[in-house]
Task: structure prediction
Amino acid sequence: MIHETAIVHPSVKIGEETNVWAFSQIREGAVVGKGCTVGVYSYIERNIRIGNNVKLMGHINVGRGVVFEDDIFVGPMVVFANDRNPRHDKIRDLAGIEWTIKRGASIGTGSIVMPDVNIGRYALVGAGSLVAKDVPDHGLVYGSPAKLKGFVCFCGEKLPIEKAQEADGKMKLVCLACKKEVFVDKNDFQKLWKTYQKIK
Result:
């Protein structure tokens, strides 16, 4: 469904069961997968690639350079910037440059994601965050600037780090809610553990 007030360029490819809601604009060359939502008053720049089952809620601005994999949630009023040094009289050359929001990631309401920042698989960004550095797989980050505060499961629940075990060069965490095992990068875990010990 494409709302009658939405502006979608004829070159845009949109998958089955995708809804584009009122007053949104999708620019030329963009690709939007199956089962997606583009919420009201959202703006999708040229040549953006969006995977399947991606929910972009209202008032979202996606600048060029961002690639969305599958199964992603982006809350209302999130901005994806694409130039760290903007000026009114020049445009950044983004030919061959892109960064990725990876499968299963969620980004909370009102966050800003800076250019060239990759967000890992099943990561969770807290509402109102300024994300200026890459976020690891399953990473829980929030704040301004956003910092690693923990790890989350596939189901979104925060993982207990006290009982983590090393396994094949990674750290294994077990979700208390769904009992699934999650493996995270050892270096990322050690950085978080040092911070946790100081607070404790």
Q: What stands out?
A: The chain has one helix and 23 strands. Helices lie at 186-199. Residues 186-199 form the longest helix (14 residues).
